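Long-time lurker. I teach an intro course on protein structure, and each term I like to show students one example going from raw sequence to a predicted 3D structure in token notation. This year I'd like something fresh instead of my usual example. Would anyone be willing to generate the tokens for the chain below so I can use it in lecture? Attribution to the forum is fine with me.
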Amino acid sequence: MSGAPTPDFTLRPAGTGTPAAPAKVPNRAVRPGGELGRPGAPAGTPGQAGPSFSQVLEDVSAPSKAGDLRFSRHALQRVQRRGIPLDPRTLGRLQAGVGRAAEKGSRDSVVLVDGTAFVVSVSNKTVLTAVHQEQMRDQVFTNIDSAVIA
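-- Reply from a regular --
Happy to contribute to a lecture. Here you go:
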């Protein structure tokens, strides 16, 4: 789908009645092929070094074997918006940290991996949100019963 047009949003003026000709504004956050990205950011190329966000999204939200972590929609949005890397090494350390929390009987935990805090429902094995080191200043994590440095 590399030649797909960029999706448009229709803007209509406020007021009553139907506008004669609505204005079309391209949504630059959606790249051709439905891939999400920041406006002005270069589109990914087939030879890029890491997986695209859509590939990571498929990997972490696909039905998985028992023991694998899932990411909530909110967590995936935070990961994308904050540019948090989700490479296999990071995911493995996160999973190991959640496993250690589960062994201790934790229900909700903050797992720290390389300067990123992941708030995880240990019992559901679901990442609820992610905060990178730059956004952690003055943050308070509530409703957790443990913290793991992975």
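Some talking points for your students: Confidence is low (pLDDT under 50) at residues 6-16, 19-23. Residues 66 and 119 are 20 Å apart (CA to CA).
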